[in-house]
Write the C-alpha cells for this entry.
Amino acid sequence: MAGGGSNTASVNFTSPSTACPPQYLDVVKDECGRVLSSSCRMAGSVDIGMGGQLLMQVWFTDGTWTSTWYRDQARTMFGAWIDLRYDSDYLAWLATQPTPGTESPTCGAELS
C-alpha cells in the first residue's frame, strides 16, 4: 500500500477454532446442545489497517461473495458507502439464537 508505512493489509485463512464470525460458523449439536462439529463458511479474511489499528476485515468465501466488518472509525470514514452485509447477517444469526437460560436443565439426566 502507498503512504507513510502505517497502512497495512494481511490475508488470514480461518477455521472454526480461530476467528470465524459466529454468523458464518455452521455448528452441529446433539440433542443436549453439545457441539459435535463446526465449520466456517468463510475461507479467510483480509485485515486492513491504518495508523497501526485494524480498520476493517473483509471476509471471503471460495470466490462467490464477501462480507466486511468495520471498526467504528471506518464507519465514520466511509459513511453511507459501507456494505451492511456483515451487520445484516449477524442480526439474522442473532435472531435465531436461544434466549439464555432456556436450555433444558435435565438434558442427559435420567427422568424419574
Q: What stands out?
A: Helices lie at 72-78, 85-95.
